[in-house]
Design a protein that fits this description.
elongated, TIM Barrel, Hypothetical protein af1432, 12% strand, 8 strands, alpha/beta
């Protein structure tokens, strides 16, 4: 059983699908009702702030971007351990606009904190807070139809107010809200493939699939992988860059691909080549590549605490788990075209086997649903998952600069 809430983060994107901020979530939250928030909201907010600030480091968790944090009425009146640049205060939908709460919010705004009204649906009582808000978070599913998103914005908009559509799960919802004037978007629409039947697969996607297929042939040996990389000048150059980064090479400069492969080993070269190959998909947002990289390192870290998962295989699984979104193709078709082994294919497409079970748990955590994880089927504990999350965040932060993400 889970012995403490797990810190989760969800990216908030702008209209260009660039990361604007992260919302930090404390899960599990079995009930978002007013009664639950009154009883447990303070401890949930405390877990988020302490977890991010002291156990991991806020700058690492958010990559230097603002953190959206849910606030209860009690938390509005305390001295905050973060600066206004680091945090956006979300007013939970059940907080009444009493004189005490309004005075507390006014004080926070005077200190420079930005205020976001959470889960707004057009309720007149909650609309009282809009005059103090910098950002309005609109609960898209609660509106009943995406068509209502534009009507809510039109009715309540004023100059300088940013509108954020949350729980955006499809590209169609993203485009609809964007056209309606929304500025920010939260949800996992960006990790879904855009599958348009009858459309020709772009040459860039075909080239990446061919490269991935060559890199991941089960019978490929050391020389095969080096030859595959050598035929792509850009890939060779980037691999040499990474091999000479301070985090990896502490000796004499590595000047040839053969030396890099010898020094780093076949598995590491293959993993990095896979990663850089996916980076060639310039039509995809950086947040998608970052999410794939994070999954790769999280799976790799989780595997270290098990007897049945191999770290390099686990990394490849996490990295490739978003291939459908990267290549805009059904995932089973992508797995076939890049020659993924049967075990990995079944783990990605069916969450089968020990790799698949751990990948499923990762995705449940990612969506803030850690309370639905079947811990009995895993070889890791909640505390081990939390430690792996922290390690993956740190590793991605270090690697993103080398990858240009």
């Amino acid at each position: 059983m889970q012995d403490r809430p797990l810190l989760a983060r969800q990216p908030i994107l702008d209209s260009n699908k660039a990361i604007y901020a992260y919302e930090l979530l404390c899960r599990p939250i079995p009930d978002a009702s007013e009664a639950w928030q009154d009883a447990h909201g303070n401890s949930a907010t405390t877990e988020v702030v302490i977890g991010a600030l002291h156990e991991i480091g806020m700058a690492l968790v958010t990559g230097g971007r603002p953190a959206f944090v849910n606030f209860t009425a009690d938390f509005l009146s305390i001295d905050l351990p973060l600066s206004p640049d680091e945090m956006v205060i979300e007013l939970l939908e059940h907080i009444p606009a009493t004189d005490k709460n309004i005075n507390a919010v006014t004080r926070l705004k005077q200190q420079g904190f930005r205020i976001a009204v959470d889960d707004f649906t057009g309720d007149e009582a909650q609309a009282t807070w809009l005059k103090y808000a910098d950002i309005v978070k609109v609960d898209l599913p609660a509106l009943g139809s995406p068509d209502n998103a534009g009507a809510v914005r039109k009715k309540f908009h004023r100059e300088g107010l940013l509108w954020l559509a949350e729980k955006v799960e499809t590209h169609e919802e993203f485009e609809h809200c964007k056209a309606a004037g929304y500025d920010l978007f939260q949800g996992y629409f960006f990790s879904k493939p855009v599958i348009l039947f009858g459309r020709r697969t772009p040459d860039s996607h075909l080239a990446v699939m061919q490269l991935l297929g060559a890199l991941n042939q089960e019978e490929a040996d050391f020389d095969d992988i080096v030859d595959t990389v050598r035929r792509d000048p850009q890939l060779s150059y980037r691999l040499l860059q990474m091999a000479n980064s301070p985090q990896v090479n502490h000796g004499a400069p590595i000047t040839t691909l053969q030396r890099a492969a010898t020094a780093l080993g076949l598995s590491r070269i293959r993993n990095w080549a896979n990663l850089l190959a996916l980076g060639k998909l310039s039509d995809k947002p950086a947040v998608l590549q970052q999410q794939a990289l994070f999954r790769g390192y999280l799976m790799q870290s989780l595997s270290a605490g098990t007897d049945t998962m191999e770290p390099d295989t686990a990394f490849t699984l996490g990295l490739f788990s978003l291939l459908d979104a990267m290549l805009d193709m059904p995932i089973d078709e992508v797995c076939a075209r890049v020659n993924l082994p049967k075990e990995l294919t079944q783990a990605i497409t069916e969450n089968a086997g020990v790799y698949g079970q751990h990948l499923k748990a990762l995705m449940q955590w990612e969506k803030g649903a850690a309370d639905t994880i079947d811990w009995a089927s895993l070889e890791v504990t909640p505390s081990e998952l939390e430690a792996s999350i922290e390690q993956a965040i740190l590793t991605v932060s270090q690697q993103s600069g080398d990858l240009g993400l």
